[in-house]
Amino acid sequence: MTDDYTESSPVVCTTHGKVQGTLLKSLYDEQFYAFDGIPYAVPPLGSLRFKEPHDLKPWHGVRDCSKPLNKCLQVSSYTKLVEGSEDCLYLNISVKTLLGEPMPIMVYIHGGAFKGGDSSRRAWGPDYFMKENVVYISIGHRLGPLGFLSFEDPTLEVPGNAGLKDVILALQWIKANAANFNGDPDRITIFGHSSGSMTVQLLLASPRTEGLFHKAILMAGFSMELNRLPDMEFRLAKHLGYEGDNVDSQVLQFLLKADPHQLASADFFTPAEKSQGHVMAFVPSVERYATPKAALLSEPVDLQRTAWSNRIPIILGANSGEGLTSINFIKTNPSWLKDFQHNPERVLPWTLRNRCDPGLRRQLGQALINDFCQVHGHELTASHTDAFADLFTHSMVHALDRLIRARLSYGQAPTYLYRFDFDSPDFNFYRIRFMGKEQRGVGHVDELGYIFVIPATFKLNPSRPEFTAIRRMVAMLVQFAATSDPNAPLTKSLVDWKPVSRFGQRMVLNISEELRFIPQPERPKLKFFDRLFEMAGVPLF
Predict the structure, then answer these.
(1) Which position has the higher pLDDT, 397 or 3?
(2) The pLDDT value given to residue 2
(3) Looking at domain 11-312, does it have CATH number 3.40.50.1820?
(4) For residues 110 and 72, what is the distance between their CA atoms, to the nearest angstrom?
(5) For 152, phi and psi rounded to 5 degrees?
(6) Contact 3/98 with Cβ under 8 angstroms?
(7) H/E stretch holding 273
């Protein structure tokens, strides 16, 4: 049974009321239905600011869900202005057809350093997925202090991770309503990019998510530790004019009355902290006391050892030039040489910076610069920018490697590894946006142009290799969501993508103009990172 798309405004019943969607056409003229701005929780306003999300009461009548609603309150990375709303707990559903066999569900969690990003099709259009039989869902959740403020005093009921709990409540809604949108509630795959990928990793580690999803895809964002800085709440309040002491109840009272725009735009890191690379004040944290909705009561590295998710398959990977962003930072920052000469620990993963005394930090940072640049920190010159990019790429790949090793040690399900390596002259939109067309390589976020339609996307001639790459990427991801095996009809004659094995070489699917299953190019230099963790006494997994 197929859809004839005669219904331009379909109405679907959900557990909370009726929603009306709209019929759309993708960039390549495939028809699909979109239901945007479906509420899944009570708007977290007034006294509910910073609190765990509350389940919604059902509504009467039919709710218009034909247009995306506000993103969560944030400073836009494009306009540098405060945009969005505190009222942002909505999800968006796009579906190829509402008839026929139930389809696998793919739930996307956007990136943006836990403080920015937009879940809607304005930012990440699911057009390419709509060629396949799949239900695509994206979740809006609270960001910055609104999503990740936390207080130790249990009477205040702000244990932290409200933004993560938003996602968990949305997943519960999705599980309960999957069938109404022609989705299969037993084939839910969550996937995320950058901080969204880290969110996926935290959901894999959390005991609270068991049964809410069945597979996961992590793209270019990993951390075994949370590395939350102390006293962020007090510092935020002081920055906004609070004059009292660091007493949780008083700080919270002040912040509940604060202008939400000021909360979202507060930038209180000192120049010294910025020269150390601090940009994220509010991120997920280990909750300091247990509640029925607690998401994380230990570090991910500890939770991972016994996590329920060791029994479900995952795909993970990153781009071949993740560290290119550091070149952009270096080009726009004349003082970068001084920063790294004075603060060699800046090159270390956050976990090592937060768990070593200053002397050891400096020593480990120097050692890492020496390993990649072949000089001492004080001898750095502008000629070392490429070596820096290589260092930061390896740092990302090492973070990913730690999760792989945890999976190989404690897991009973396949782990598929990819490396996105398609260096297009005009379709790697983030590299072009930040570094211009002269710079080549595959930077952070470039792979998303091959999965989503973004504002910079243009229609490709089907003869172009980029068009082929899009078709293959999406086919493999959807095949994985459907069957737990990413070898799609479109790709299996080209390459056999096998899970990571415990013995022998570490193999990776290299995704470029060709698909090739090759030994992981970054592997040899990862051992140096292992040694740094050993010297710091930090367990890898």
Answers:
(1) 397
(2) 59
(3) yes
(4) 12
(5) -75, -25
(6) yes
(7) helix 271-275
